[in-house]
Amino acid sequence: MGRVRRILNRRFVIGALLVGVLAVGAGVVWFQPWKLWVNTTVHEAAPVAAEAGSGAPRTLAMGDLISHEHKTSGKVRVLELPDGSRTLRLEGLDTSAGPDVKVLLSDAPVKEGKAGWHVFDDGAHRSLGSLKGNKGDQNYALPADLDLGRYRSVSIWCDRFDVSFGAAALTRA
């Protein structure tokens, strides 16, 4: 009987260790903690008109990023080119990297502190795609059918954890 108990205890310990290793592995894949120490800097030039001499881009809206879940700073501008195309431009962005981070347009107001962390996907929102880098200057094309009047904020949004790293209220120019 003692020998059977030792074998069962050993199997239980080995099984518990295997479950623990699998749980840690799954946690590492899900949280991707190494991204907290890896920076990607992007330096895209501001968009310009396709034809020389056809005019400079016009600023339609702008805002300053504030921090939410992660320290975030930089400027946001919505630009319209002479051909009518529009671009959302992040300038001087400085935030954390993370898993599945997107640039989101939202109808939610920008609130400071924890009250603003989880609101940007509650109402009308539109993803402009994955964040290209957590530092620098970058451009995101706005769809032609996008009604800018419907959206009043931009969020650097972690889709994996449904949390805003930082956000900016858009003020019409």
TrEMBL record:
<dbReference type="Pfam" id="PF10517">
    <property type="entry name" value="DM13"/>
</dbReference>
<keyword id="KW-0472">Membrane</keyword>
<feature type="domain" description="DM13">
    <location>
        <begin position="58"/>
        <end position="171"/>
    </location>
</feature>
<keyword id="KW-1133">Transmembrane helix</keyword>
<protein>
    <submittedName>
        <fullName>Electron transporter</fullName>
    </submittedName>
</protein>
<feature type="transmembrane region" description="Helical">
    <location>
        <begin position="12"/>
        <end position="31"/>
    </location>
</feature>
<keyword id="KW-0812">Transmembrane</keyword>
<dbReference type="InterPro" id="IPR019545">
    <property type="entry name" value="DM13_domain"/>
</dbReference>
